[in-house]
Amino acid sequence: MSKFKVFILTHGDLCKEYCNLFKYVAGEELSKYVIPLPLKENMRPKGYMADIRKVLDDAFPFFLTDICGGTPDNIAKLLVNEIGKGFVISGVNIPMLMEVLKIETYKSPEELKDKFINSGRNGIREFCL
Fold it and tell me: Whole-model pTM?
């Protein structure tokens, strides 16, 4: 069992689709480490924060958010401040999420944070003719 959990926070159901894709690639066993938390239309920030609190446990949380400065991102930052642990990384993408395939091999939260960021950046490529 990993000491880390990854929470994907997005506007709408995008986070669910990321989790569906991850489950397709990684299988059922590893998908338990990735939890989608959609901000639904007309949902108030306090209600969203309460929903997130319900799924937090003792694992070190990583919050991957869709847009820097958006409501999911801001709520994640407030929660990290409140619980005193965790990382918030905005701009979630598929290469970043694939680091969860190796989640049990990472020794420290900082190591996994760096992998998320590097994979996210390196997964963006331009194709030119």
Answer: 0.94
